[in-house]
Structure formats: structure tokens, C-alpha cells
Amino acid sequence: MKPLVAFACGFVFAVGLAVAGMTQPSKIIGFLDVAGGAWDPSLAFVMLGGIPMVALARRLRPTRPLFATSYPTLRRHGIDRKLVIGSILFGVGWALAGFCPGPAIVALGAGVPGAIVFCAAMLMGMALFQVSDL
Hints:
The chain is an all-alpha fold and 134 residues long. It has one domain (2-131). It is 66% helix and 0% strand. The protein contains six helices and no strands. The chain has helices at residues 2-19, 25-32, 42-59, 81-97, 101-110, 115-131. Helix 1 packs across helix 5 (101-110), helix 2 packs across helix 4 (81-97) and helix 5 crosses helix 6. The radius of gyration is 17 Å and the shape is globular.
């Protein structure tokens, strides 16, 4: 049952990204082009649309998850070199390619040009991280 729920959640997320146009790099790059005169605020509206959903989910949060015995406890970490380098790489990659990982995977499935190259580079980056000492 748990994999089916995970698949359904991922599917709804993917459909939402596709309907909002977030699988199109031109939308992301247009949002980041504040000074270029071709600013596209649609990404801001997508983000703003998610805030009430998160607020509602946090408000209605049951005492225990539906498919686990308890919520995971996450350790808090300070700002370190890994976080800073990862954040910089994520931001630069997002700005240059117009993709972040979720929409890139959806775009890959939809056959959007450039998604194959981005996903391959993303996988190579993950593999390099695993073998590096960052």
C-alpha cells in the first residue's frame, strides 16, 4: 500500500508541475530574468499556491503518519561546506538549465528537450558526491 500511495503522490505532483508549465525551462529562466525585461511571475504564483497547502497539512497533521509508526526525527545540522557548495551548485544549475530535479524528471518523461542532458548531469553529480570528500 505504501508504494501505491507514494506513486499517487508523485503522480499528482508531476501533473501539477506539468499543468503549471514548470517543466518548461523558459518559464524558470523567465522568472529569474528580473532585470532583462521579460520577467515571468508564474513560478511565484506556483510557489504561493503551495503555501496554503503546506499550512493546511501542518494544521491537520495527525499524531502519527498513516503508513508508519511515527514521524522521522531529523537531526539539525549547522551551515557547513557541504551545504554551501550544494546550494551554489543547485542555484547555478537551476539558473543555467531552467530545471530543478522534480520538474526535470517530469520533463524527461514528457520528452522535453534538454531534460535528458540535465538528468544525466544530475545523476553524475550525485555519483561524484558519493565518492568525493566534500
